[in-house]
């Protein structure tokens, strides 16, 4: 199937599928993520997620059917609900996510999700249930204890006596939160504790129960040791006293009895002192009373020693949280600050300190309330202090109370010379920075805080303009923004700039057509109107202001009436006024447009099996290249039979029926292209059969093999002879190359032919390099070989190219879609569609330089959103640059297909594809910015950023490319100005009038690309002619009109990209950062 039909078929199908999947309503919505019922532990954080299909919708939440009122503890972030420090009293219930369209006409509510808060009380106590009094406990009777604790879900209770866990036995029966001890006896004496456990945590009892049966046969406890919390390094004391005992001993866990040492002291009265407490001495200490000859076991009563601690505090300990150490309050406002106590043992106490006099402040439950804020009563530093036995921690912030700002001294008018430094000042009475920020605005544009050109000091209100340009003139105002108050704007101050003398634009090299009437312009401007004169550098190197009679200098413009070969040379333009004098030297060359000297006959008849010569020749200066095509397809020839001769003629050695068709001969040089066509009619010859290797007679096989072997033997002898000859010739050739390099360059080969001649060697890229001043020099043989080896790694065999389809013509040749084999290792015969850019004007230095520049750009920039260079075909003429291509082609055609006025066969007047959503459009813009950022980071300049030079895939991802179809396909989007073909509507002032292309001009063009995407492929300034655009661009009066579909953040970004002053434009890195923030907001 023809590649045109294949591409059209798949593109149409893909666009149709995309259109179907876009939905039928821009306001349609469905939930993609629904809030889920959740369990959260009290005091912990919870996020309820919610997401929808339409990023333009706004989100809110309801709690138990009522609209949720946000606070610093519970608030909506994007579409999700954030709950900080969950509270069982405030946060339990049913939550629903509500999505509302931008116009408020459509509201969707999710199914409610239930939030359950798990908790456990931090105060646990062991209580006596039966009997109802300690005095009624006696041996032989039962005792029932209860662990008093509350929590959700149900709490599990574990029981301990003297630190040993009690298992469920006939003696000890546990049920729920109760412990039933049957038939108590002295063995059951001791300290009973309980531990409460659920999903919210583990809590030990603070109040324990001491069971002590009295009797004469065992030691009786009089003073029970109590739990202690001690500071590290201290010496806590446990008291313990028995009566009716013989021996009193202390044990630490299972170690003991303890004796006097550097760690412990046991007093005669039974007290125990632990010296220099640390973590190794934390745990259970047991006091044991022993009665000699007693039938009852020793009596044991234990106590717990714990180290005091206090966790540190930080900025998140105070709510609402802030990133800065300041809290800015407007005068007379009200605020509440909540201090979150850190974890500690024992529980810390929280107090507030601060204010103008750093005093203790009244607070309730850690909350500090400020009412009717005033500078005298509330400005100062505030601290939340948490203290316990072990330590104290604090977290703080400064409160700045602001009053309405007053401009004491507005900026004053200023006059400066262009190229100097200007300083504007704005003196303000207000709260200090950061409560007050002072920004500057010129006209309607807010100036950036810090750039290479302007620096705005937020704190002191100073604006510094470095290297003042004439475009900086205008009115400036300072804007004072104090938190909590309206912005105050100063009266305008006029900045006058005295313009310095400069060319506008600077003249460049000029190529004149022999015999034509032409002009060479030279314009300059300054504070005083300059006088402009032309001169010519004569053969002696001197300046001469006398010109031949056919050349006239009229107010800085050279009028040449009838260009002659003698007009070639160097010309100097000088501009001067009373202040300065400047000059520029340009090269003027004389050329001749291509002209056919031999035109092929039309039509031409040929007979099958015979040969035919189709003659074509042309002349011009420089000598034009000749190319042949068949039926408008380059390289559509059988190379085994068809050859392009050095004189430009097309020779067919054996005519076949399939050779019939239209043949075109194109002659081209730097002045343009000329083309002629002829029709080849093939007459059938009776009995003719084209020769084929398969037509051999089987009986001749032995003879064929013998001949083949003989030829092979002769070939081997020839090879050995040639090897010896080549070694000698290589030495001689190296000397010749060096001599040619010293004599000014390598001569070009024969005239260029069409892509049919795939094997004929031709002057290659590396043979010619341009100096910085535009002159051509030759390289030495060694450097030539180095560059050749650099390009060799990109070499691609043009025999693997097929089915070339002409896309159009560009700056240096035709552009094709081709099918390439051998790119996929899994299947070498599988083809891949690529874009091939041909170098037709190989003798044109500017075209050669641009071709090499594109090779360097696409081979050195490796990024997902920049097309990749696949290879270079330079084993014949023309050279081809092979670039990656996508299944949906260029973005311009895709955007046009989204318009309602786009029609195609079978569409019944309906759009081919659905309009892009804001999220999809922003994603495309971000991807393009990422690609251009990668290009700028490699220090390349694109020069033609536009939708026509961006490729799009079926997954809606885009890649920066450069088809540059300026000659026919997108000819209307280019404009010829000063002999240069420019994308006028996509370029800033400095690129058009000063020929200054830079990353900043690419940023301007990127802004135009954004405008195209949000205006469905419309070209910029559609209501203006090219001449009107040129005039308004020069006067800097171009005004952009944005469609209603363009979001405000894109409009703001577009204004920053298309600023008339290059220094005021953003960098690609800052553009990417802004767009990523936009995507985060859209996704959230």
Describe, in plain words, how this protein is organized in 3D.
The protein is α+β, with helices and mostly antiparallel strands and 1084 residues long. It folds into 9 domains: 34-120, Immunoglobulins (Immunoglobulin-like); 121-213, Sandwich (Immunoglobulin-like), CATH 2.60.40; 214-307, Immunoglobulins (Immunoglobulin-like, Sandwich); 315-402, Immunoglobulin-like; 406-498, Immunoglobulin-like (Sandwich), CATH 2.60.40.10; 502-591, Sandwich (Immunoglobulin-like), CATH 2.60.40; 599-686, Immunoglobulins (Immunoglobulin-like, Sandwich), CATH 2.60.40.10; 761-884, Phosphorylase Kinase, domain 1 (2-Layer Sandwich), CATH 3.30.200; and more. The protein is built from 13 helices and 81 strands. Strands 2, 5, 6, 9, 10, 11 and 14 form a 7-stranded mixed beta sheet that branches. Strands 42, 45, 46, 49, 50 and 51 form a 6-stranded mixed beta sheet that branches. Strand 73 (801-809) and strand 74 (814-821) form a beta hairpin. The two termini are 47 Å apart. Mean pLDDT is 86; it is low at 1-24, 693-701, 734-789 and 905-911.
Radius of gyration: 45 Å
**With helices defined by DSSP (H or I, 4 residues minimum), what is the helix count?**
13
Remind me, CATH topology of the largest domain? Transferase(Phosphotransferase), domain 1
| CATH architecture descriptor of the largest domain | Orthogonal Bundle
Outline the biggest β-sheet.
7 strands, mixed
Q: What share of the residues does DSSP label as strand, in percent?
A: 35-45%
Structural class: alpha+beta
Q: What is the CATH C-level name of the largest domain?
A: Mainly Alpha
What is the averaged pLDDT score? 86
> What proportion of the residues is helical, as a percent range?
10-25%
Quick one: CATH superfamily of the largest domain? Transferase(Phosphotransferase) domain 1
Number of strands: 81
What is the domain total for the residues? 9
Uncertain stretches of 5 or more adjacent residues:
1-24, 693-701, 734-789, 905-911
Ends distance: 47 Å
Shape descriptor reads: elongated
């Amino acid at each position: 199937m023809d590649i045109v039909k294949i591409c059209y078929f798949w593109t149409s199908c893909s666009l149709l599928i995309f259109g179907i999947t876009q939905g039928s309503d821009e306001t349609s919505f469905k939930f993609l993520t629904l809030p889920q019922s959740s369990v959260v532990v009290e005091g912990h954080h919870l996020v309820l997620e919610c997401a929808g299909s339409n990023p333009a919708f706004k989100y809110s939440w309801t709690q138990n059917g009522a609209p949720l009122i946000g606070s610093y503890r519970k608030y909506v972030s994007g579409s999700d609900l954030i709950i900080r420090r969950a509270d069982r009293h405030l946060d339990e219930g049913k939550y629903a996510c509500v999505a509302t369209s931008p116009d408020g006409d459509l509201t969707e509510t999710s199914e409610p999700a239930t939030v359950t808060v798990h908790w456990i009380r931090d105060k646990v106590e062991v209580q006596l249930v039966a009997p109802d009094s300690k005095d009624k406990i006696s041996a032989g009777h039962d005792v029932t204890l209860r662990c008093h604790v509350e929590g959700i879900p149900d709490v599990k209770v574990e029981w301990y006596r003297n630190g040993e866990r009690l298992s469920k036995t006939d003696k000890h029966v546990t049920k729920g939160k109760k412990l039933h001890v049957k038939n108590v006896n002295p063995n059951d004496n001791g300290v009973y504790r309980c531990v409460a456990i659920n999903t919210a945590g583990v809590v030990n009892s603070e109040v324990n129960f001491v069971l002590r049966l009295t009797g004469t046969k065992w030691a009786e406890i009089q003073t029970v040791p109590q739990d202690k919390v001690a500071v590290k390094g201290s010496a806590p004391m446990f008291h313990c006293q028995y009566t009716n005992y013989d021996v009193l001993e202390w044990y630490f866990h299972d170690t003991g009895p303890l004796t006097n040492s550097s760690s412990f002291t046991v007093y005669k009265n039974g007290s125990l002192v632990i010296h220099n407490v640390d973590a190794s001495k934390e745990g259970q200490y047991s006091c044991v009373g022993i009665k000699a000859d007693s039938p009852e076991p020793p009596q044991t009563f234990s106590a717990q020693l714990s180290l005091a601690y206090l966790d540190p505090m930080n900025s998140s300990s105070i709510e609402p949280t802030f990133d800065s150490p300041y809290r800015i309050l407007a005068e007379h406002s009200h605020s509440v600050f909540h201090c979150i106590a850190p974890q500690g043992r024992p529980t810390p106490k929280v107090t507030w300190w601060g204010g103008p006099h750093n005093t203790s402040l009244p607070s309730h439950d850690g909350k500090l309330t400020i009412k009717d804020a005033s500078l005298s009563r509330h400005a100062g530093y505030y601290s939340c202090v948490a203290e316990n036995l072990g330590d104290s921690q604090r977290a703080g912030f400064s409160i700045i109370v602001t009053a309405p700002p007053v401009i004491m001294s507005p900026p004053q008018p200023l006059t400066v010379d262009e190229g100097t430094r200007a300083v504007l000042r704005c003196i303000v009475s207000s709260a200090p920075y950061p409560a007050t920020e002072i920004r500057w605005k010129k006209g309607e544009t807010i100036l950036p805080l810090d750039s290479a050109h302007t620096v705005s000091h937020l704190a002191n209100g100073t604006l510094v303009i470095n290297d003042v340009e004439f475009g900086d003139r205008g009115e400036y105002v300072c804007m004072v923004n104090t938190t909590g108050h309206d912005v105050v704007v100063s009266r305008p101050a006029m900045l006058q700039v005295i313009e310095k003398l400069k060319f506008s634009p600077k003249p460049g090299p000029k190529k004149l057509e022999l015999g034509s009437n032409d002009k060479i312009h030279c314009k300059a401007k300054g504070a005083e109107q300059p006088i402009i004169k032309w001169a010519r550098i004569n053969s002696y190197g001197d300046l001469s202001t006398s010109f031949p009679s056919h050349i006239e200098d009229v107010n800085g413009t050279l009028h040449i009436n009838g260009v002659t070969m003698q007009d070639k040379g160097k010309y100097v333009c000088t501009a001067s006024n009373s202040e300065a004098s400047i000059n520029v030297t340009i090269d003027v060359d004389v050329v001749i447009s291509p002209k056919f000297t031999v035109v092929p006959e039309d039509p031409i008849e040929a007979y099958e099996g015979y040969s035919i010569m189709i003659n074509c020749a042309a002349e011009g200066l420089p000598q034009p290249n000749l190319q042949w095509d068949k039926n408008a397809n380059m390289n559509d020839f059988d190379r085994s039979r068809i050859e392009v001769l050095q004189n430009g003629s097309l020779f067919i050695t054996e005519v076949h029926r399939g050779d019939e068709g239209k043949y075109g001969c194109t002659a081209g040089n730097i002045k343009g292209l000329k083309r002629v066509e002829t029709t080849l009619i093939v007459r059938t010859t009776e009995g003719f059969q084209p020769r084929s290797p398969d037509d051999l007679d089987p009986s001749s096989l032995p003879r064929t093999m013998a001949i083949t072997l003989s030829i092979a033997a002769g070939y081997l002898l020839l090879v050995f002879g040639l090897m010896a000859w080549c070694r000698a010739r290589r030495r001689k050739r190296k000397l010749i190359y060096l001599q040619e390099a010293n004599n000014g360059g390598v001569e070009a080969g024969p005239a260029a032919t069409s892509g049919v001649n795939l094997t004929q060697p031709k002057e290659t890229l590396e043979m010619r390099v341009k100096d910085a001043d535009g002159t051509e020099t030759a390289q030495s043989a060694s450097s030539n070989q180095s560059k050749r080896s650099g390009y060799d790694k990109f070499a691609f065999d043009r025999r693997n190219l097929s089915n070339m389809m002409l896309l159009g013509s560009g700056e240096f040749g035709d552009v094709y879609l081709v099918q390439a084999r051998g790119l996929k290792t899994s299947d070498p015969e599988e083809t891949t569609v690529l874009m091939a850019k041909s170098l037709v004007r190989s003798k044109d230095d500017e075209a050669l330089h641009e071709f090499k520049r594109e090779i360097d750009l696409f081979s050195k920039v490796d990024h997902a959103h920049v097309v990749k260079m696949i290879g270079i075909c330079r084993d014949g003429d023309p050279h081809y640059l092979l670039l990656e291509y996508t299944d949906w082609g260029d973005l311009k055609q895709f955007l046009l297909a989204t318009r309602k006025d786009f029609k195609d066969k079978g569409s019944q007047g309906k759009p081919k594809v659905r309009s892009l959503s804001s999220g999809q459009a922003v994603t495309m813009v971000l991807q393009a910015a990422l690609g251009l950022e990668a290009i700028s980071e490699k220090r390349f300049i694109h020069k033609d950023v536009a939708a026509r030079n961006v490729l799009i895939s079926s997954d809606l991802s885009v890649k920066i490319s450069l088809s540059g179809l300026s000659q026919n396909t997108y000819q209307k989007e280019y404009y010829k100005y000063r002999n240069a073909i420019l994308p006028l509507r996509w370029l800033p002032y400095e690129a058009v009038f000063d020929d200054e292309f830079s990353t900043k001009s690419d940023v301007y063009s990127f802004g135009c690309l954004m405008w195209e995407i949000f205006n469905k492929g419309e070209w910029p300034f559609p209501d203006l002619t090219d001449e009107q655009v040129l005039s308004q661009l020069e006067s800097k009066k171009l005004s952009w009109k944005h469609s209603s579909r363009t979001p405000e953040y894109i409009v703001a970004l577009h204004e920053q990209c298309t600023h008339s002053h290059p220094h005021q434009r953003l960098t690609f890195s800052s553009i990417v950062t802004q767009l990523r923030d936009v995507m985060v907001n859209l996704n959230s």
